[in-house]
Amino acid sequence: MTESKIHIENLYKIFGKNPKSVLDFVKDGMSKQELLEVHGHVLGLKDINIEVPAKGVTVVMGLSGSGKSTLIRHINRLIEPTAGRMLVDGEDVLGMTKAQLLNFRRYKASMVFQKFGLHVHRTVAENVAYGLIVQGVSTKKAKEQSHRWLERVGLAGFEDHFPSQLSGGMQQRVGLARALATDAEVLLMDEAFSALDPLIRTDMQDVLLDLQTELHKTIVFITHDLDEALRIGDKIAVLRDGAVIQQGDPQHLIMNPADEYIFDFVKDINRGRVLKVKTIMTSDHAVDGPEISQDLVLEEALQLAAGSQSKAANVVDRRHTIIGSITLDQIVAGLARPQVDSPAEGQYR
Ligand SMILES: Nc1ncnc2c1ncn2[C@@H]1O[C@H](COP(=O)(O)OP(=O)(O)O)[C@@H](O)[C@H]1O
Ligand SMILES: [Mg+2]
After folding, report:
1. Which residue has a Cα nearest atom 7 of ligand 1?
2. Which residue CA neighbors atom 16 of ligand 1 most closely?
3. Edge to edge, what strands does the sheet with 4-15 contain?
4. pTM to 2 decimals?
5. Which domains does the chain have, with CATH numbers?
6. Which of 42, 158, 229, 258 could join 15 in a cystine, given CB atoms 3.0 to 4.6 angstroms apart?
7. Residues lining ligand 1, judged by CB closer than 6 Å?
8. Which atom of ligand 1 is nearest to the CA of 73?
9. Closest C-alpha among 104, 183, 197, 108 to residue 149
10. pLDDT tens for residues 21-58?
């Protein structure tokens, strides 16, 4: 998962009459507010640099208006940047001709939308087959494929229904099947599950994670919800006012929030269910205790360490090699929510 599939470099987007004329102000550090009040332009994205690893899920997170949709829509060039580079598989998306771009959208990058974006007058099967028909696949083959993908997302038997006859969760399964049917390597998901009720939403996350273990798509997933980001993201980039504030390993983000904005996102999560022992262990020598996986979450590690004589456990990697140990005290400390007014908090200011 180290190879980069999408490379975003020094990307800027300014909305307004003459974006290029104010680009230098933004480059010199003018705030979004000042750009709007003094120059009547909206800062969409500011100097975005992100590597999206192949075959992984990269989450872009941020509050409403932070620039998430603007960013993801640059990847398949639904939006033209004011400045910057966008490469997919080393290919310059901004240099593509109209025909190349069309192909890129048909074969390489599929999008899943928050409001599903289904054709209301087409059946479920027709909706899923649509992208294939556009690719020039025969009607018969498209129908077969459509059936196959509907089965994969748990909608076998609903082929002839119309979208309006389905619940929101089911409609988004259709949206997912449609995106998968084209065989695109890149899935762009803009708050795809945000409109769904919590339980349905968790279901959809499971469907996606399940498919992903087999399909290994490169997924850019947008959400404003940290729990969702942590559940599905291999990597998280956090946006605020059009700029990336912090990006990287989700565990690192929780332990080392770069500023108060991110601290506010992470302070209320259930650390016991999210943090892994490998993240908080410090010792590199073995103890007299049980072996626990490096990926075990604190809540489960707590039980095992508490039950051992030494009140500690050995942490092992996937090959069962001991990579360190952790004590009950460390686990308990890791569970504690950081104090907003603690001395350590100074680093967020
Ligand atoms: N077409 C547009 N014209 C002017 N401003 C826009 C346009 N699209 C988005 N914006 C502004 O850009 C910022 C980022 O918007 P958006 O990417 O939709 O945020 P998010 O998806 O994170 O909610 C917001 O301030 C929004 O008002
Ligand atoms: Mg949005």
Report:
1. 15
2. 67
3. 42-53, 4-15, 83-88, 91-92
4. 0.91
5. 4-266 (3.40.50.300), 271-335 (3.90.1280.20)
6. 42
7. 15, 42, 44, 62, 64-70
8. 17
9. 183
10. 999 999 999 999 999 999 999 999 999 999 999 999 99
